[in-house]
Amino acid sequence: MITKIVLGFVVGILSSGSGLGGGFLVVPFLIYMGKPAKIAVATSILFVGMVAVSSLWAHSRLGNVDIKTGLILAAGGIVGAQLGPQILQNISDQNFKMGFAAILIGTGIWLLLNAKS
């Protein structure tokens, strides 16, 4: 339990400071702990949602929120979020892990290549 609290604390700091959401760390951690991919993803979403609300509040107090852009992005995200679980239902844990790893690696490479600009 202490490990989960400490991970939540660290991921909360990283999420609110980077905008990455935390799922990129929470999902692999939960899978490592033996949770099936579907449970890891859904549990991560609960965590990310709670942290996002807290982070939104903190950033709002600092004047860092572009509400119009956020709402426009959310409109598409809400619709897309209804399709994600349906897709996940039809993917094996092994294929999910490989796809998730590819996305993380691809994102990491993209960030490295664009860090100079």
Question: Can you describe what's shown?
Answer:
- The chain is an all-alpha fold.
- It has one domain (2-114).
- Helix content is 83%, strand content 0%.
- The radius of gyration is 15 Å and the shape is globular.
Overview in brief:
The protein is an all-alpha fold. It contains five helices and no strands. It has one domain.
Number of domains: 1
Number of helices: 5
Rg to the nearest angstrom?
15 Å
What fraction of the residues are assigned to beta strands by DSSP? under 5%
Q: Strand-and-helix sequence, N→C?
A: HHHHH
Structural classification: mainly alpha
Main beta sheet strand tally, sense and closure: none
The general outline is globular
Count of extended strands: 0
Question: What is the element layout, followed by pairings?
Answer:
Blueprint: H1 2-18, H2 23-32, H3 37-61, H4 67-89, H5 93-114
Helix pairs in contact: 1-3, 2-3
Keywords:
mainly alpha; 117 residues; 83% helix
